[in-house]
Amino acid sequence: MTPDPNTDDDEVVTWWGLVIEGYLATQDKLMGEIADRFGLAPASFDILLRLVRSPEHRMPMTRLATEAALSSGGFTKVADRLVAADLICRVPSPDDRRVTFASLTDHGLDVADRARTACAEILRRIVLTPLGDDAPALAEAMRTLRSVNS
Fold first, then answer.
1. Contact 17/28 with Cβ under 8 angstroms?
2. Separation between Cα atoms, residue 108 and residue 114, nearest integer Å
3. Per residue in 51-95, pLDDT tens?
4. Max Cα separation, the chain?
5. pLDDT category, 141, cuts 50, 70, 90?
6. Residues in a beta bridge with 91
7. Which of 34, 83, 93, 116 is most exposed, with minimal Cβ within 10 Å?
8. Closest to 103 in 3D by CA, of 77, 78, 82, 74
9. Would you give the end-to-end CA distance of the chain in angstroms?
């Protein structure tokens, strides 16, 4: 289906505003529930999710900071809090002394697994149930936007 090129400017801007508002409201609700259940701030939760889905539950810290869209200093603060909470540890690379891995501890793996399961349950309730059959189309649309705008 080709969009109508004559769609009113205000309507196009309103559509985009609704996408942003819907995302922000949903993300706030999701992160609020994750914080209530696990005491995890959004950046900490994001890092744990990335690590639990990575081979050996570890990733080079510079890559992890980049993927999490955090500055070096911002990532260091988050990593320090995760280390203090015994959720991750820093592991020097055996192959390259310039590389340090962030690796889930046993406790971190347990928390990350439980938080990921809770996240899926919350998303089923606050996204999949309200959207029904439209949920896969939304995901595909967002995949397209990411692809053409990256």
1. no
2. 10
3. 999 999 999 999 999 999 998 889 999 999 999 999 999 999 988
4. 60
5. very high
6. 101
7. 93
8. 82
9. 23
